[in-house]
Amino acid sequence: MTATVQLRIKGMTCSHCVAAVKEALDAVNGVEDVEVTLEPGAARVTGSASVDTLTAAVKEEGYEASVK
Asked: Is this model's pTM higher than 0.85 or not?
């Protein structure tokens, strides 16, 4: 089942951070599309990956993620 998840991302300070979070989320199985924005620190993920898997991928990159 495809769904869109809105995540709040804490700890991003520059475009490199945005790219790192986007790459981490893109690598998760089941993710079809990712959009990450520095301000206000958010990600929109479309696909079938679980929220727990998505937040774990962001945490592994050194950032905090929670459902908006």
From this structure: yes
- In Å, what is the CA distance from 58 to each residue of 26, 38, 41, 65? 11, 14, 12, 6
Nearest to 54 by CA among 16, 22, 28, 18: 28
| Domains of the chain with CATH codes | 3-67 (3.30.70.100)
> How many Cβ atoms sit within 10 Å of the Cβ of residue 29?
8
Rounded percentage of the chain residues whose pLDDT exceeds 70: 100
Ramachandran category for residue 45: left, alpha or beta (phi over 0 → left; psi -120 to 50 → alpha): beta
pLDDT for 1 beyond 80 = no
